[in-house]
Amino acid sequence: MNTKRSFSLTLTVGVAVAAVILTAAAVLGAPRGPDDARVEPARAAQTLLVSLESTYAGWVELSWAVPGVYSDTLTAPGGTLPEMGSIDLGLLLHRDEDNLVGYIDLDNTLVFTGEHIITTTQAITIPLAVGPWVQGTFDGADLQLESERFSMVTDAGQYVMRQFCLSGTRASLTTFTGEYRETLWGYGPQPLTIVGEFDLQLVSGANMVLSHQIYLPVMLKN
């Protein structure tokens, strides 16, 4: 048996399944695994009070996938790669100096499931369903974000877990671009990481690029 060809076929099928999981996540109902408390959503539990002043939205162009987790050193496979398409992505963010915290914005994405219920500190305090939480850093130029690990069950009854990270830069005053990596656990003998390129733009709220900057008055000498 040609082991290399068998691995290539398995990987191709795995990538196709992973793409289906990503695009179907919002319509599967996503029941959770009872044994993993880390990913249990706070639906009926306490509502979190948070400050989220920036909303960024855009998309991720999925490019390739290989066995491994997103923190590994990964190399794109050779040859003709299967078409993976794109997914939408939205983030509700709060910046405190160089630190970022926030959640997936479900109004701007269809591929993430509701994981938490929050109440923002903005004018209207209405409970809001949001996706996984994220945390990371932004130093004015470079952006790093990592999500919590969360889970879902496909319509075929397959329990999978997901976690992603963003690593990018400020492309303009209102735009961030960079690399997206998401790892899937549970549908194969080893985790699979999907890699793509993201583009996120400010759609409402405060501009993180301009926030926390100090503007000094101009002093004119006569």
Describe the structure.
It is a single chain. The protein has 222 residues and is mainly beta. The chain has a single domain (3-205), classed as Porin (Beta Barrel), CATH 2.40.160. It contains one helix and twelve strands; from the N terminus they run H-E-E-E-E-E-E-E-E-E-E-E-E. The strands form two sheets. Strands 2-3-4-7-8-10-11-12 form an eight-stranded antiparallel barrel. Strands 1-5-6 form a three-stranded mixed sheet, with no helix packed on it. The radius of gyration is 19 Å and the shape is globular. The N and C termini lie far apart (87 Å). Residues 3-13, 23-46 and 213-222 have low confidence and may be disordered.
Helix content: under 10%
Computed structural class: mainly beta
Helix-strand pattern, N to C? HEEEEEEEEEEEE
pLDDT below 50 for ≥5 consecutive residues: which ranges?
A: 3-13, 23-46, 213-222
At the third CATH level, what is the topology name? Porin
CATH class: Mainly Beta
Largest sheet: 8 strands, antiparallel, barrel
Task: Offer a quick outline of the entry.
With 222 residues, the protein is mainly β.
Question: Which helices and strands occur, and which strands form pairs?
Answer:
Elements: H1 3-24, E1 48-50, E2 54-67, E3 86-96, E4 99-104, E5 116-120, E6 128-130, E7 133-138, E8 142-147, E9 150-153, E10 159-170, E11 175-185, E12 192-205
Parallel strand pairs: 1-5
Antiparallel strand pairs: 2-3, 2-12, 3-4, 4-7, 5-6, 7-8, 8-10, 9-10, 10-11, 11-12
Key traits:
222 residues, mainly beta, Porin, 3-stranded mixed β-sheet, 12 strands
